[in-house]
Sequence to fold (103 residues):
Amino acid sequence: MAEKYCDSLEKNLFKGLDRESILKYEYFFSSIPKDLIKDENEFLETFKSSVKSICSYEFSESNEKELKSFLKAYLKTKSNTPKTKVEVINPTPINTAIIPVFR
Fold:
């Protein structure tokens, strides 16, 4: 996630979206399994440290506050989202001998 964050800073992906923090942080957190984050504060410190070591970016107080508030909201939303069970599907292999080839 830190690499994704640094990449977005480098490419200015969120320039002009200062008021759209939901879009910005949804982009980062959506790929993280909820059960990966056991302790919010520990996660944030690790994340900030990783970002600093990868791209030398220091979080401002307002960015850190924004990040914390979105993480809390994101985790709450994720925990309230109904879970659906997906069954494994075993696709039937295609016999390439029966596929017509047009030349």
User: Anything to note?
Assistant: Helices lie at 2-10, 21-29, 40-55, 61-80. The longest helix spans residues 61-80. The mean pLDDT is 76.
